Amino acid sequence: MKTIVLKVDPTNPCPTKLEKAVAALKAGKLVAFPTDTVYGIGADIFNDEAVRSIFTVKKRNPGKPLQALVAHRSDFRAIAKNWSEMLDRLVSEFCPGALTLVMLARDDFPRQVRCGRNTIGVRMPANPVALKLIESFGAPIAATSANISGFSDPASAGETMKYLGGKVELILDGGVTPGSIPSTVLDVSVSPPVTLRQGKLSAEELNRVLSITSIVPQK
Questions:
Q1: Contact 166, 81 (CB under 8 A)
Q2: pTM more than 0.90
Q3: pLDDT of residue 214
């Protein structure tokens, strides 16, 4: 497979180029794209074979769930099994942004992407290319960082190509991302919430919104 690289305006991506990426996703192919943290690799979340291929090309632990990337705040409510005032505050304050919320998923939400678990990590990236791609696709995208597992996260299309050239259908080149720090992952399926990964968004910022004394770090 020859990977196509399409250079796009990072703030106002060409709709025609986005449609090529959308067509690839709908055909069950993998697409890489910039986010507000690092470059990601994505697939149609409702296509189990496409989702499995992310694990294959990344050499990812098959028991480690992927994320669901969404384009609208309302999408969080559509995925969550239980909605709460706390979730509403977090989504209103930090989405779009560098926060992944691990929440109980509706029973009919695709199990392949969550590796059979009852939870799913959901994020709304603050990047125009990613947001417009997801919006144009018309559904959440199953995604994770566009690296080979165990290696550094890519911050550019060139770094992504080194990892995934010949393994993905298309790379949207939206320039260099802000850095190699991934999103903060907060598990809100438990009480109190637990930080599963400390990333770009600090515990202090989260605590300010949650109005709780502390967020318990994972041991």
A1: no
A2: yes
A3: 45
Structure tokens at 197: 């990964």
For 20-71, the pLDDT digits (tens) are 999 999 999 999 999 999 999 999 999 999 999 999 999 999 999 999 999 9
Q: Pairing state of beta strands 4-7 and 99-104? A: unpaired
Domains, the chain, ordered by start: 4-217 (3.90.870.10)
Angle of the 15-26 helix axis to the 128-137 helix axis, nearest 10: 50
133-182 residue pLDDT tens: 999 999 999 999 999 999 999 999 999 999 999 999 999 999 999 876 88
3-state secondary structure labels for all residues of the chain: CCCEEEECCCCCCCHHHHHHHHHHHHCCCCEEEECCCCEEEEEECCCHHHHHHHHHHHCCCCCCCCEEECCCCHHHHHHECCCCHHHHHHHHHHCCCCEEEEEEECCCCCCCCCCCCCEEEEECCCCHHHHHHHHHHCCCEEEEECCCCCCCCCCCHHHHHHHHCCCCCEEEECCCCCCCCCCEEEECCCCCCEEEECCCCCHHHHHHHHCCCCCEECC
